[in-house]
Amino acid sequence: MKRVFTAVTIAALLFLACNNNKTSDTGNGTDSASTGMSLKQDMKEKNKETAMASEKAFNDHNSDEALKNVTADFTDYGDESMPPIKGADSARAFVKMFLASFPDYKGENLMAIAE
Description:
Layout: H1 2-17, H2 32-59, H3 63-66, E1 75-76, E2 85-86, H4 88-101
Antiparallel strand pairs: 1-2
């Protein structure tokens, strides 16, 4: 269970690490620094929503939806007690196996932090 949470968290963080810092001058007199901060806040909120959607899908036992943001070259090193899981397809297979093994699995009090 710890390994799956780690895999989902790593996948979410990898997806969340992608950050688009493009700013454009709208010519409306707004300060570019405040616009940049606003874009960062918006990205943080979007990242939190994405992470929580992934966690909700995991709780709903929907492995495809939970791992939809995982790249093809995804690697989960887990706690290093087992060989790493390499590739999105392997991660999906592992999550499906885990969810089949623990059909009553549910996470509680889940939070996302994007700081």
